Amino acid sequence: MTHPVLRAQDLRRTYGTRVALRGVSFDVRRGERVALLGASGSGKSTLIRCLSGLETTDPGAGRIEVFGQALQEGGRHSPRIRALRRRIGVIFQQFNLVGRLGVMSNVLTGLAADTPLWRGLLGRYTLAQRALALDALDTIGLAPQAFQRASTLSGGQQQRAAIARVLVQGAELVLADEPVASLDPQSTRRVMDQLAALNRDAGLTLIVSLHQVSLARRYCHRVLALRDGELVYDGPSAALTPSFLQQLYGTAAEELLHDDHDFAAPAAEAPPLALAA
Ligand SMILES: Nc1ncnc2c1ncn2[C@@H]1O[C@H](COP(=O)(O)OP(=O)(O)OP(=O)(O)O)[C@@H](O)[C@H]1O
């Protein structure tokens, strides 16, 4: 029997008196492209931090399995977490690049787990590792910027460098936390196109949190929708019409429908990635 790539069971996370996740359960199969949708404060980032192993759920609550193995259970990380996290790529809204380092050096940090610390600190990567990073930058259309400082890139370019880092890491499951929240519509389209292409061409399983329903409908077949930490919908993105959103969220639906005109066009398939053989 094949395991789901990700299995979340009864996840709860409380901060003081604030309940950020309330019994969230779902499975994701290999190769799926899933949007995690919800208004501000609905628990998207908390869920992604838990799924990526950056945070634990409440003591005694819930279990997260990745690749058929426990990542955390009952609020405790599994002893295998390091090995499992190597297979999970995380992309953040704020890119998490080191601005004073070159783009290539940033992308090479995706290899941190496979590189002795001293090599990484001194930037002494092997030729093969550098070639891998250049390939990833080429795939993502950033080869010409490889030796620029990361801080000189536009927001969209920085996010694409973060995608290249995940490629170099060799991640099988990518968790992207509002990767386009701070980008203009053109950069948003480019970054989303590339995430979609990674999923389609490189076979990565993708979970991407968004708070624009139009993006979720355009790029993902399946949506998990959160409201106040609760999973209120798990189904096809095509069903998320404005009236259904109104039923799910009431007046808060407005937040998810904002800027809808920018991405309202029917889903276009992303251009293929120039994946290295
Ligand atoms: N470290 C923390 N300490 C205290 N409360 C937190 C913490 N992280 C999240 N919360 C609270 O948990 C709830 C869910 O927050 P979360 O950031 O997961 O939501 P979100 O859907 O990602 O929101 P946004 O779209 O604004 O990023 C919010 O009420 C938030 O204030």
TrEMBL record:
Domain ABC transporter: 6-253
SUPFAM superfamilies: P-loop containing nucleoside triphosphate hydrolases
Keyword Ribosomal protein: no
Protein's recorded name: Phosphonate ABC transporter ATP-binding protein
Stored NCBIfam families: ABC_phnC
Signal peptide (residue range): none
Highest taxon above the source species: Bacteria
Pfam families tied to this protein: ABC_tran
GO cellular component, one term: membrane
Listed GO MF terms: ABC-type phosphonate transporter activity; ATP binding; ATP hydrolysis activity
Gene3D superfamilies: P-loop containing nucleotide triphosphate hydrolases
Keywords of the record: ATP-binding, Cell membrane, Hydrolase, Membrane, Nucleotide-binding, Translocase, Transport
EC annotation from Swiss-Prot or TrEMBL: 3.6.3.28
